[in-house]
Amino acid sequence: MIETWLPLLAGLVLLVAGGELLVRGAVQAAERIGISPLVIGLTLVGFGTSMPELVTSVQAGLAGAPGIAYGNIVGSNIANILLIGGVSALICPILVARAALRRDAVVMFAVAAAFAGLAYFAPMSRGIGAALIAALVGYIWFVIVQERAAEDGGALHDKSLALAEADPGLAAPPAQGRLLMPLLIALAGLVLVVAGGALLVSGAVALARGFGVSETVIGLTIVAIGTSMPELVTSVIAALKRQGDVAFGNIVGSNIYNVLGIGGTTALIAPSDVPAQIVRFDAPLMVFVSAVLVLFAATGLRINRWEGLMLIAGYAAYTWILLP
């Protein structure tokens, strides 16, 4: 039994540690070559907590395990809303900025619905992957333009802020010193996340076979929860600091990154059909819980503790339905 769980757990540890090193080195290198701190925050730091999902889904796609690849994306988004959003609201009611609700939360719902529709009507081809990535680039550019115009940076800004506050070492350092060391740190992180992703995927496949459940179910539950740990940590820390708006932005920003960035990259590198179970049930559920989050946030521009309890109960019911 331990032989089945060990690769999966080791993969998760390597993914989290390697992701932190990769982002830390990339941020320091970018700062040293003069890239704007705003761009660094909305791209490199913002993508930091999504690195485990990215590497795992791409590795699973290349290994011919689309159930794990897309189960990880959809399952992570459901966990972000129901589990992480619920826990954060339970710790401290989540205040929601009106601008974040109007723009970012609506975008989160729209991309979830778009993914569900695309998965139903067509396989995830390289063309669809390129379109999803282009949509993410366009969205980030739009946010950067608004931020430079002194408007609210929204969910992407809050996502990067949440990670930087959880790990102050990821904040961009002064632009000085040699470039070699940050590049070596980033390279070491890259090696760790690639190795961790391979271990996690192989462990998930072995776990599915050992327990007689589908790879899709493992991807939607164990893998999705494991790769969502950085989001859980950063959102809980934001909630403990009474920064509920940052926790909300972290969740919304992560979900946008997951569908557009990770879904797009996975389809671009390893095109495949989305498993029928995800198409029929989990993707529509992702759209539904996204709508629930928007509805909760729109009522009084806050997510209360009782709403957080409802979200947690919803996640408990979801895992009970999935797991034998």
TrEMBL record:
Residues 6-144, 183-322 form the Sodium/calcium exchanger membrane region domain. The keyword Membrane applies. Keywords: Membrane, Transmembrane, Transmembrane helix. The chain crosses the membrane at residues 78-97, 104-122, 128-145, 183-205, 217-240, 247-269, 281-299, 306-323. It comes from the Bacteria. It is a multi-pass membrane protein. Pfam families: Na_Ca_ex (PF01699). This is Calcium/sodium antiporter. It comes from Rhodobacter lacus. The lineage of its organism: Bacteria, Pseudomonadati, Pseudomonadota, Alphaproteobacteria, Rhodobacterales.
